[in-house]
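Page 47, continued from p. 46.
Same chain as before, 276 aa.
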Amino acid sequence: MIDVGRYARLKVLRMEDIGARLDAGTMGELLLPTRYVPEGCQPGDKLMVFVSLDSEDRPIATMEKPKAQVNECAWLKVVSVSSVGAFLDWGLSKDLFVPFSEQGVKMQEGRFYLVYIYEDNTGRLAATTKLNRFIKDRAEGLASNQEVSLLIADKTDLGVKAVINHEFWGLLYHDQLFTPVRKGQSVSGYIKRIRPDGKIELSLYQPGYGKVSDFAETIIDALKANEGFLPLNDKSAPDAIYATFNVSKGVFKQAIGALYKKHLIVIEKSGIRLIE
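Result:
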């Protein structure tokens, strides 16, 4: 199915002076204006296009690449504010509209906001900062240890909220957040735990041994870069470990323990040393 606000691979039906006519199925024919038509394009070719709306809100194809599609979240900049709402730069020549009624706080030109892109009841594309209307609080179809995409949102007393796969809210706890993150940042993460109430706990690291194994490789690289010795061991202060590797002391101890058992390092009073 072809939807406005999303990518589609469409077949070229014919070439005209104003551009290429594309087969959009039940939507009919879409125009890809001449300025976007690839050199050498011929009838029968299939093109990956973004289905947008022109200045009169009619479906049209473009080769411009938006920063997000409909039913997705994005961190976007306000380029102008008018008497009817705000307009965001989302990568297309036609800016994305945010009505005043969809602004949790009044938007200001030049600032960035976390928004959700949707199709309103008239078929036009718009955005909102009121994400709770679209983002679910409880997990559906997710599993522990699953890798997911995260979009960092607001800080709370417990940690940092993140949007999971553009569909769900999750939480990165402060005491498990060993890498600094900022609002609007896109990162990969993992489902650490789904609570009995359906709420989702997240981690930036692969749960279980995978995290330790990955970090152990980081320690080996650090040892090689420092002539085979680091002044840290299982007795070191948590702050010193975090300052060096941005991980907790517990993760560090597990990693050097795994390396010690593999006879890759020795643990000395003053630190750890790589076995040549």
